[in-house]
């Protein structure tokens, strides 16, 4: 991370906004359907801009804060939480974004999908981890379904909101610092020129 | 508005939003708590964590700490928006 910042000083504000997204969104306890509530993850933006490696480092900082001060997860489950929210989620977001760009989908739709699926992937992996730790008498699949029934219902509306908010922020970044996005290989120069022509 | 002021304003704004958001969900069951219920069901209530946190914040302290976390995010957003503003000013 420090190597990237030293080599490309102009990436520092984007690193700040990626961190800000994780800090802010993962602190928000939002109501969802069926009288439940949960937190978005905010890892989608970082994984699109910097990839899953750097996003993992930022996520670890947030998870350590929550483990130490909020008793959320705690230190003994930090590894499991880092894997689901810091590795699996950002990796899913990164793969979805790159795949959608290769498929030639709309840029903002690609960002929306990447952020929403990074959020959902985190909770799918959490369900799998819990199912492996607490298998039902009839097998791991039964436990997985039970945990997924909780997380999927609560998380799908929040993932949609997270995808929309991330798309809006990405649009702002694209309009204000498209030069850095091109240098980071997030978007091609051709795509930026095309978007400018459309909005002109 | 200079960089520090913008960072402070956004820090306070997002801290307040997180505080209000957690107040608005009081009475709702968190998905983590629901998952805890499933674990109890699967283990017949026999599961106990082998190590418990030394400190558990009460709901008020939890709200304040989540607000602090959002406030840190707000400071970072302030830094980002200020850098965009400066870049625009340099271009002009």
Quick structural summary:
The complex is a heterodimer of chains A (200) and B (92). With 200 residues, chain A is mostly helical. In chain A, 76% of the residues lie in helices and 2% in strands.
Q: Could you please describe the fold and organization of this structure?
A:
The complex is a heterodimer of chains A (about 200) and B (about 90). Chain A has a single domain, classed as Arp2/3 complex 21 kDa subunit ARPC3. In chain A, about 75% of the residues lie in helices and about 0% in strands. Chain A has helices at about 1-5, 10-25, 45-50, 50-70, 80-100, 105-135, 140-185, 190-200; strands at about 30, 35-40. In chain A, strand 1 (about 30) and strand 2 (about 35-40) form a beta hairpin. Chain A is globular. Chain B has a domain at about 1-25 and about 60-90. In chain B, about 75% of the residues lie in helices and about 0% in strands. The two termini of chain B are about 20 Å apart. Chains A and B meet through helix 2, strand 1, strand 2, helix 4 and helix 7 of A and helix 1, strand 1, helix 2 and helix 3 of B. Strand 2 of chain A pairs parallel with strand 1 of chain B.
Descriptive tags:
heterodimer; A: 200 residues; mainly alpha; Arp2/3 complex 21 kDa subunit ARPC3; two-stranded antiparallel ribbon; 2 strands; globular; B: 92 residues; 74% helix; elongated
Topology:
The complex is a heterodimer of chains A (200) and B (92).
Chain A: H1 2-7, H2 12-25, E1 30-31, E2 36-38, H3 44-50, H4 52-69, H5 78-102, H6 107-133, H7 140-183, H8 189-199
Antiparallel strand pairs in A: 1-2
Chain B: H1 3-24, E1 29-30, H2 31-43, H3 59-91
Mean pLDDT, all residues of chain A: 91
Which class best fits the helix and strand makeup of chain B?
mainly alpha
Total helices of chain B: the number is: 3
Helices and strands of chain B, in N-to-C order? HEHH
Q: Given this structure, which CATH class of chain A is correct?
A: Mainly Alpha
State the end-to-end distance of chain B. 18 Å
Judging from the principal axes of the Cα atoms, what is the shape of chain B? elongated
Which stretches of chain A are low in confidence, meaning pLDDT under 50 for 5 or more residues running? none
Order of helices and strands of chain A: HHEEHHHHHH
As a percent range, the share of strand residues of chain A is: under 5%
Helix content of chain B: over 70%
Shape of chain A: globular
Q: What count of domains describes the coordinates of chain A? A: 1
How much is the average pLDDT of chain B?
Answer: 89
Helical fraction of chain A equals: over 70%
Radius of gyration of chain B: 20 Å
């Amino acid at each position: 991370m420090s190597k990237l910042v030293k080599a490309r000083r102009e990436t520092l504000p984007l690193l700040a906004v990626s961190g800000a997204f994780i800090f802010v969104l993962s602190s928000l306890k939002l109501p969802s359907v069926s009288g439940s509530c949960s937190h978005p993850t905010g890892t989608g933006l970082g994984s699109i801009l910097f990839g899953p490696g750097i996003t993992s480092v930022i996520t670890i900082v947030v998870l350590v804060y929550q483990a130490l001060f909020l008793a959320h997860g705690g230190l003994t489950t930090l590894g499991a939480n880092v894997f689901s929210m810091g590795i699996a989620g950002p990796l899913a977001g990164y793969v979805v974004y790159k795949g959608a760009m290769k498929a030639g989908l709309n840029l903002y739709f690609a960002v929306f999908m990447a952020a929403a699926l990074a959020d959902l992937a985190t909770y799918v992996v959490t369900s799998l981890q819990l199912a492996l730790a607490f298998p039902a008498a009839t097998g791991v699949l039964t436990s997985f379904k039970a945990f997924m029934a909780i997380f999927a219902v609560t998380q799908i509306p929040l993932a949609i909101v997270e995808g929309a908010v991330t798309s809006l922020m990405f649009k702002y970044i694209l309009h204000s610092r498209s030069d850095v996005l091109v240098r980071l290989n997030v978007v091609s120069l051709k795509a930026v020129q095309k978007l400018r022509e459309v909005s002109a | 508005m200079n960089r520090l002021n913008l960072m402070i304003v956004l820090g306070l704004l997002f801290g307040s939003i997180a505080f209000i958001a957690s107040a608005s969900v009081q009475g709702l069951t968190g998905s983590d708590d629901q998952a805890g219920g499933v674990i109890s069901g699967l283990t017949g209530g026999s599961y106990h964590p082998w190590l418990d946190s030394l400190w558990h914040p009460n709901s008020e302290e939890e709200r304040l700490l989540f607000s602090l976390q959002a406030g840190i995010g707000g400071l970072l957003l302030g830094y980002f928006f200020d850098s965009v503003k400066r870049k625009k000013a340099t271009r002009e």
